[in-house]
Amino acid sequence: MNVMATIDTTHPAKPAAAGESLLSHICARGIAVDYVVSGRRQRVLQDIDLSIPKGSFVSLIGPSGCGKSTLLKVLAGLVPPSEGEVTVAGLAPGEAAKQRMIGLVFQDATLLPWKSALENAAFLLQTADKSIARKQSLERAGAMLRLVGLDGAEGKRPSQLSGGMRQRVAIARALALDPEVLLMDEPFGALDAITRGEMSRSLLDIWERTGKTVVLVTHSIDEAVFLSREVHVMGVNPGRIIETLPITLAHPRTEASFAEAAFTAAEARLRKLLIEGHARRPS
Amino acid sequence: MSTQPVAEDIAANSAGASAHRALSELVPALLLSAAVLVLWELAIRLFEVPSFVLPAPSAIVASLMENRVQLLAATRSTAVEILFGFALASIVGVAVALVIVRSERFGKALYPLVVLFQTVPKVALAPIFILWFGYGLTPKVTLIVVIAFFPVAIDMLAGLQSVEPSFVALMQSVGAGRGEILLRVRIPHSLPHLMAGLKVAITFSVIGAIVGEFAGANAGLGYVIQFASTQLDTALVFAALVVVSVLGLAFYYAVEFSERALVPWAPKFDAMHRT
């Protein structure tokens, strides 16, 4: 994808939904990332251009080592790019994160074992905003727990929750910040297939209700197609975007979406690209 | 979402049963101990072993009763040494761990020295402490600190450093500094590890106190053991050993119970019942 204008009226994945902002919410231009591994510079990401509209749901998919997690960390401000420019909501990512515009969810829920689900969900908000009253932060966290479907689990410790429930708490913790964008790094990667499916439908529901801009890193083709408006397929050596595939599945998406021709076509296309991306290793 | 069986249900079921189970678990151990004691008693009487070589259990019990005033006084001095030594060792161990984590440069200097010091046979330091600090409480407490701070420092350090890096990144991304992460995340996270270190430290403290008293003392259970052995009063040696064991057990369980009260979220390591 080479469209770099901030206002992007020719965005290929943009459905002609009325009243939606056409501003690109996350914008990356010419991103490259070098890691120094035992004294040698290694390029893990090259020529990354991204323009993600506000309220969109975008997936990054690719083989292991394609740098999709690194790209997410660049967007989150956790890894500074060696070249290029990134903005999130018009700000540098680090600054955007400090202003609570970025919610992060990792593969591990990373909950604090001595705190209840409610306190865990409130913890990051309390860290980010020292002026917020404890009661208020807990109320907000409670509302987010209900949003992710954890009513009644507020008082439970992480050890009393299943893997899927823990990940829901992590999502609630990110949402409690009321961020503009939600960056998720294989959030369901450690879950079993059935729980994954449930979590996907929940995430779709949360996205539809909150209107956050979501960037999801995933290994799962199904997940990417079912959830996204646009899928960026990444290749290896160095990590780069080899194709951007708009997903034309109708909204709202349901169980029936899996049977649509658009789903099957997108799935087949992604599978082909992933195999090619893995095989094509320019060195 | 579907309801899934969670750890709580299992815990709730076993909570009531666990006390009963713990008691029934003890039965084989008690039976074996009783058998050993009976055999011991019989062997001593049958082969007419002289009491100064190996006293019969009945003789040890008799000595316990006979010398109870002396043993109680000795227990008191040893317990005081253990308490002071253990408390100070805990403080030193925690401080060392915090310094190593807080200051990278100082930590790099300190850590190898701490490990190197651990390889010194510290029992051999006991006479030096007597030389420096005399026969009172100080040399024993010093020896205990030197022996027992290490497991505290190492376990606490492991706990402080075992916070998931992604969680640290999460905290940093919303503007938390090192100090705040240490205080609100690393230290609470390290508490179960610290308690594991304290359990090792308390048993080391008992050893330290007895060794310290061997090296030179005029009170305490170690002193009683040494004095009685010079008098060939082996029954009293064994009586004092029984008291030392009971004292050590009491201290150990005191730490274990405080662990359950202070860090109820700590994973319970129950070697016999892991499935």
Give a brief rundown of this model:
The complex is a heterodimer of chains A (283) and B (275). By secondary structure, chain A is α/β, with parallel strands linked by helices. Chain A contains eight helices and nine strands.
Throw out a few tags for this protein.
heterodimer; A: 283 residues; alpha/beta; three-stranded antiparallel sheet; 9 strands; 35% helix; 24% strand; globular; disordered N terminus; B: 275 residues; mainly alpha
Describe this structure in words.
The complex is a heterodimer of chains A (283) and B (275). Chain A is built from eight helices and nine strands. Chain A is of the alpha/beta class and 283 residues long. A six-stranded mixed sheet of chain A has the order 5-6-7-3-8-9, with helices on both faces. Chain A has a three-stranded antiparallel sheet with strand order 2-1-4, covered by helices on one side. In chain A, helix 6 (193-210) links the parallel strand 6 and strand 7 (213-218). In chain A, helix 3 crosses helix 4, helix 3 (117-128) runs parallel beside helix 5 and helix 4 crosses helix 5. Chain A starts with 23 loop residues before the first strand and ends with a helix. Chain B is globular, with a radius of gyration of 23 Å. The model of chain B is unreliable at 1-12 and 270-275 (pLDDT under 50).
Structural class of chain B: mainly alpha
Globally, the shape of chain B reads globular
H and E string of chain B: HHHHHHHHHH
Kindly report the average pLDDT value of chain B.
Answer: 88
Q: Tally of extended strands of chain A?
A: 9
Total of DSSP H or I helical runs spanning 4+ residues of chain A: 8
- Approximate shape of chain A: globular
**Which sheet architecture does the biggest sheet of chain A show?**
6 strands, mixed
Secondary-structure element series of chain A: EEEHEHEHHHEHEHEEH
Average pLDDT of chain A, rounded to a whole number, is 87
Which spans of chain A have pLDDT < 50 for at least 5 consecutive residues?
1-22
Extract low-pLDDT stretches of chain B: 1-12, 270-275
Radius of gyration of chain A: 19 Å
Radius of gyration of chain B: 23 Å
Count every helix of chain B, treating DSSP H or I runs of 4 or more residues as helices. Answer: 10
Using CB atoms under 8 Å apart, which protein chain pair has the greatest interface? A-B, 31 and 27 residues
SS content category of chain A: alpha/beta
Characterize the biggest β-sheet of chain B: none
